[in-house]
Amino acid sequence: MKYLLMTLTMMVAVLGTRASIVSAQNTPIYKSIYDSAKAKYEKGEYVEARALFLEVKRMALEDETYSEMIDYRIALCLEREGNFKEAIKSFKIYANSEKINDKIASLESVEAKIRELEAKLAQETNKTVELEKAKKTVADLYKRADDYATKGNLTSALALYQEVKDLAQRASIYQEIIDYKIAYCYHQQKDYVNAIKHYRLYIAASSIQKGWPDRTKVQKHILDLERYLEKEEASTSSLAMDAKTKALWTEGQTRYRQNQFSEARKQFTAARANMKASNRYQEWIEYYIGVCYEAEGKSTEAVEAYKLYTESKTVFKNMPAKEDVLKMIERLEKSLQATTPSTVALQKKLKEMHDQARRLVAESKPAEARQVLSQIKQEATAANLYTHKMDYDIGVTYDREGNYKLAVTHYKTYLNAPAIQPGWPDRYTVQNRVQFLQEELNSKGGGTFSGGGSFYGDGGGPGILGPADSITGKWWFWAGVAVVGVIVIYVVFSGQGEATDTGGGKSRPLGFGGDPVLTPGIPLLRF
Q1: Exposed, middle or buried: residue 325 (CB in 10 Å: 0-12, 13-18, 19+)?
Q2: According to the model, what pLDDT value does residue 338 have?
Q3: What percent of the chain lies above the pLDDT cut of 90?
Q4: Which CATH number fits domain 236-337: 1.20.58.100, 1.20.1600.10, 1.10.10.10, 1.25.40.10?
Q5: Contact 380, 489 (CB under 8 A)
Q6: The domain 342-453+473-507: what is its CATH number?
Q7: Which of the four pLDDT bands, split at 50, 70 and 90, describes residue 418?
Q8: Cystine design at 186: which of 65, 138, 194, 399 (Cβ 3.0–4.6 Å)?
């Protein structure tokens, strides 16, 4: 009996040992790797988890213990990584398996997941296509805007830059350099309030990329513009204006700075009507209306407006002295007396020729335009109707060709004019361009070469001037010398309706701004 018990005990021990061996042999050798992969997945380390699951799959295939459940695990990682295309492939491997573990993932749930990811994948594909289209559209519009800006068509450039900004923001590809270029256009158009607004958006960028305008210099642009506006505000603070009148007057100022003389006059006329309606009419507004009429070439109307100003019993602070305005009236009346039918006919002919030259320049045919302009100068000189603006126009054509030496010659002739008339390019703008071209000539050794100056600089161009004191007291400069026929003929060559860079102190009547403010880069001059 004792022997039997010992035998049974030994058999139990042996069987237990064999069971342990079998159990150990049935445990996959990759079990620890599998557990590590699951742990990393739970921690959100999806890339590392997928790498371990792939290793488990390789080992399982080798020892013939592979199950599609491992593909389900891999699919989960791919989904979390955002790789929907590969995730769908792995989910389908599991869904096509004959061994679906409903406790972990039922067939219905996996098929639903596949449909969900296929929808997301289609949506992502559409977004990618739309993004590429948006990028191309933005790039095309951006290039067109740059071309317009370089050629001086700031109105079209501004409209395109604003469209670029809108598209770029909607496509999440916006960069602050767009706001800089919008600000630049406003700046050149003398709309300083909007220029400041967009310059601020630019300097608020989290980072300024290489090649973009320097943040510090743009901040200086803002400071200069703000000081300029403060001085302009102070120069007219003594004039009685309610809120509506001031808004109309301010808009008139902006329009005048942009050489939109007719639109400026409409604003000043509306301001006058508002002043009368509120029983606050003062004759100082007539001076602004008169200046606009004169800039439009309407000398008779200008004289009438100036007379209303001079006949006022009130002496307005920071406005021109009445005796000086009387001299302006005398000058205009003399020019009107000198007008004859033959002069009017010649003026009409010369204007048509000038319009032709303008079109040729716009078509990038400066040499052909110069032939027309030279003929204009010749005929005008013979009729004693020459103005220095004619040499400026010829200089522009040489400038566009890259013949800087001759461009400088004609620009200097223009700068020798005894008076810069309303609507003509201001002296400072032309002086800056001359200085820039002379430095270019010196750096290249003189002669003719292609180029055109920087368009989007960081404000570090040569000869850039900041805003100086208000033009108050300096209006007489542009009034200048009375020359028979000058006031009538200048309109022919003033380029009405164009947003040229006027606005400098000595070409701007009192109340229309001081010396030109700091501008980014040295833009090409234009008619």
Answers
A1: buried
A2: 66
A3: 23
A4: 1.25.40.10
A5: yes
A6: 1.25.40
A7: low
A8: 194
